[in-house]
Amino acid sequence: MNALPSSAPLTSPPPAALSAPLLRRRMAAWLYEGVLLFGVVMLPALLFGVATGTRNALDNRHGLQALVFVVLALYFGYFWAKGQTLAMKTWRIRVVDRRGQPLTPGRALWRYLLCWVWFLPPLAAMAPFKLTGGEVAVLMLGWVAVWALLSRFQPQRQFWHDVWAGTRLIHVHPNAVK
């Protein structure tokens, strides 16, 4: 949502308005997003299982993975182009481009693809090994912590995938007009 009246020209916000939220707030929103995504993918996954007659979780898993990938792309693409997901609204975080403008659908999709860096490196690292559930959890959580902490080495404290996507996460002030 744009805080400006529809007749006002779009100008870039002042640099102070583009400051990154604290890392703990961004990670809280990230965790909350994960909880919400369970609900987002549940119905499409259930319908897929019914439509394909899947009786075992491993049957048709590649089709289900493709469906979930597309559902998540639609979810994030839509809400990031609007500026915020529900989790981002809760934690007063907005995603914008480098100039502080709303994302185009193409940039939102590009950000979605680059966000897979949260998961692909540990998945690739564990692929050749037969790891236990605990080892997978440690590897995944360790990588998430490392990736999050790497934002501390970025001058504007943005996640690196945001830098690569030409986007940034900014703090939304509670008294901002919606």
Notes on the protein architecture:
The structure is a single chain. The protein has 178 residues and is mainly alpha-helical. The protein is built from seven helices and two strands. It has helices at residues 23-52, 61-82, 86-90, 105-115, 120-126, 133-149, 160-165; strands at 93-97, 167-171. It has a two-stranded antiparallel ribbon.
List the helices and strands and how they pair.
Elements: H1 23-52, H2 61-82, H3 86-90, E1 93-97, H4 105-115, H5 120-126, H6 133-149, H7 160-165, E2 167-171
Helix pairs in contact: 1-2, 2-4, 5-6
Name the features:
single chain, 178 residues, mainly alpha, two-stranded antiparallel ribbon
Strand order of the largest sheet: 1-2
> What is the residue-averaged pLDDT?
88
Rg over CA atoms, rounded to whole Å, is 18 Å
Which structural class do the helices and strands define?
mainly alpha
How would you sum up the global shape?
globular
Which percent bin holds the helix content? Answer: 55-70%
Give the low-confidence spans. Answer: 1-10
Into which percentage range does the β-strand content fall?
5-15%
Biggest sheet features: 2 strands, antiparallel
Compressed to H and E, one letter per element, the order equals: HHHEHHHHE
Distance between the termini: 6 Å
Counted beta strands: 2
Q: What is the number of helices?
A: 7
